[in-house]
Amino acid sequence: MEKVLRFEGVYFRQAARRRHEGRPDRCYYIYYRGGGSARWERIGWASEGYTAQMAAQVRAERIRALRHGDALPARKDPTIGEVWTRYSDWMRTAKRYSDRDRARYETYIKPLFGRTHLSRIGPLEIERMKSGLLEAGKAPATVRHVLALLRHIINKAVEWDLWAGANPVRRVSMPKVSNRRERFLTPAEARLLLEALGESSAKVRDMAFLSLRTGLRAGEIFSLRWSDVDLEHGLLHVADPKSGRPRKVALAEDVRSLFRAYAPGDPGELVFQARGGGRIERISAVYYRTVDRLGLNAGVTDRRQRVNFHTLRHTFASWLALEGVPIRTIQELLGHRTLAMTERYAHLTPDHQRSAVERIAHLLLT
């Protein structure tokens, strides 16, 4: 800790790696005596907009309050564990509780930061956590989820007026994730999978069939209510949770027959329900046991090439591309926000590209 010579009681700590405006970043602190004891107070980083002069002004306000008998403002500096306790309660009240988030907190965040005050957590500490997880072999997607959870916890601390500082996670770059799947099922594999699923669970088979024929995600299938199913016009209303924009999906006759077999219930009733009623939270283990029994993942080590439930959505889009369906139509059916997200399927239409260029071949011959 070094003293700022121009201002009494103002100090700074210089970052080892972090830089601001071409030089090492500085975090400012103030020192004063109050209530019979010495007080150190963290003000903030230069990269967050704080200056030595601003720190001196805060210090002057603290001393003025002491001399005139005013109570010093209570320092709001909870630990991550204290905020998590309230965050967990909020999730339950808001019906957003997630076992996965709880597991991420208990496994990755709590051991490092559970007892750490927010003022002690900066971008450097977050970077160290990120690097440690990646070096330990954790998937980039897992690390992204952990960082996102920590960011949300701190955001809530600010929103609930438990903390007045900046969120350090915002200054940390997220690991790049490559989830692009290349593997899709052949028609023979799809028929084999559906037949095998039907022998174990009709419900799981029907959900797999629905994804394979409409491209719906698992979460979209779990959330389907009878008010979303329009059998008269052959349309499905999908409340897309990822793009935030609902979409309409046309239903072929075989998909309409599937819904008719379920004897449509009340409009607000879920089409597919958990055993005890209510919403299904994850696809049944029956699906993965069947995939393993059929050997669809035998010898496959790249997780992007392994067959999971999302493979059915990818297969739906891939089959459309192979049949020459325009990329924009596939985009609409999948509910992708941008065309770039759908262009991964463009390479599956080489024959149609060849046909297109052949159409102008005669122009040079006439």
Walk me through what this model shows.
The protein has 366 residues and is α+β, with helices and mostly antiparallel strands. It folds into three domains: 2-67, no CATH class; 80-171, DNA polymerase, domain 1 (Orthogonal Bundle); 187-353, hpI Integrase, Chain A (Orthogonal Bundle). It has 13 helices and seven strands. It has helices at 52-67, 80-93, 99-113, 123-135, 140-159, 187-200, 202-214, 218-222, 253-261, 285-293, 310-322, 327-334, 350-358; strands at residues 2-3, 10-20, 23-34, 37-45, 229-230, 235-238, 247-250. The strands form two sheets. The chain has a four-stranded antiparallel sheet with strand order 1-2-3-4. Helix 3 (99-113) packs across helix 5 and helix 7 (202-214) packs parallel to helix 11 (310-322). The mean pLDDT is 85.
Q: How are the SSEs placed, and which strands pair?
A:
Elements: E1 2-3, E2 10-20, E3 23-34, E4 37-45, H1 52-67, H2 80-93, H3 99-113, H4 123-135, H5 140-159, H6 187-200, H7 202-214, H8 218-222, E5 229-230, E6 235-238, E7 247-250, H9 253-261, H10 285-293, H11 310-322, H12 327-334, H13 350-358
Antiparallel strand pairs: 1-2, 2-3, 3-4, 5-6, 6-7
Helix pairs in contact: 2-3, 2-5, 3-5, 6-7, 6-10, 7-11
